[in-house]
Amino acid sequence: MSFIEEIKQRAKQNHKTIVLPEAMDTRILKATEIILSEKICDIVLIGQEMEIKNKAREENINIEGAKLIDSTIDSRATEYAKLLAEIDKTVSLEEAQELLKNPVYFGMMMVKAGDCDGFVSGAMNTTKNILKTAMRIFKKQGTKILSTALLMLVPNQKYGSKDGVYIFSDCALNENPGYLALSEIAISSAKTYEKFTNQKAKVAMLSYATLGSAKSKSTEKVIKATERVKAKWPELIIDGEVQIDTAIVPEVAKVKAPDSQGKGEANVLIFPDINAGNIGCKLVERLGKAQMFGPLCQGLEKPINDLSRGCSVADIVGTILITAIQS
Question: Are 294 and 151 in contact (CB under 8 A)?
Fold first, then answer.
């Protein structure tokens, strides 16, 4: 059974309710049709009911069974506004009521209030908009820093992870994390990998150098982060600092890092900064024809997940499945 089929079965067993605030995007509607036709999750679409129905009809998409909610007139807006004003003391009740006309805010408040189990957006909204709103509404949980991870499925795999399933982090949120933040990102990412695969994480703390082959502030940061992770989670398989070929090519690992714990089979790749991470994930997605799901938020009390604006229908479906499992 493929990884996607596995998480589909797990999501079906969970059968959660996922809210999608970008109902006027054709890809979102097509993903909704797939999810509902396979009875995987319940779906809430936010937008004006007639506009959504007309859009679906024009595109010949069947969204029967989806719950349609107009955030500008829904009766729960007052209740959500009070809750938002309590959470964020800088916002007045009137300002909260205005913010809740925005489908992103309304969708996240549905999750906060327990009326939905998870939230997926980003086909039309920027990552910055999604994550900034999420950090305003939800508490951190299990970590000192919020981070993001990308779940990457690489076909015809012959390097690193034996089944082609990887976590890449952080490629979307933390621009240039210090060593303390980088260590938290690594721990969160390893936990994310193990949650979704039920396999042991093998973490590589990536750098342009391997085990002292070059020295700089950048390499020192990765070394210190690796040491901190080892101190906090001694059982975790982790190597650092290592170059990408050392991380995922066993033959190279034997030469450059003979005492490597991961032995060139890393499945969790931690990038030293957002530049490296974002460039790396998009190279693998496009040149390696990988499927990319996320950015997935790590460290929030509820499952709030982002999409790339260049996402495909399959990417959206996969992210909904992942969100359902997180719930």
Answer: yes
CA 180-182-185 angle, to 5 degrees, is 115
Cβ partners under 8 Å of residue 34, min gap 6: 313, 317
Residue 229, φ and ψ in degrees, nearest 5 = -60, -45
Contacts of residue 320, defined as CB under 8 A and 6 or more positions apart, other chains included, come to: 11, 18, 20, 31, 35, 40, 41, 43, 120
Give the tens place of pLDDT for each residue, 88-127: 999 999 999 999 999 999 999 999 999 999 999 999 998 8
* In the predicted structure, residue 1 carries a pLDDT above the cut 80: no
What's the number of CA atoms in the CB half-sphere (13 Å) around residue 169? 29
Q: How far is CA 152 from CA 31, 57, 293, in A?
A: 19, 33, 6
List the domains of the chain with CATH numbers. 3-139+300-326 (3.40.50.10950), 147-287 (3.40.50.10750)
Structure tokens at 210: 């391997």
pTM: 0.87
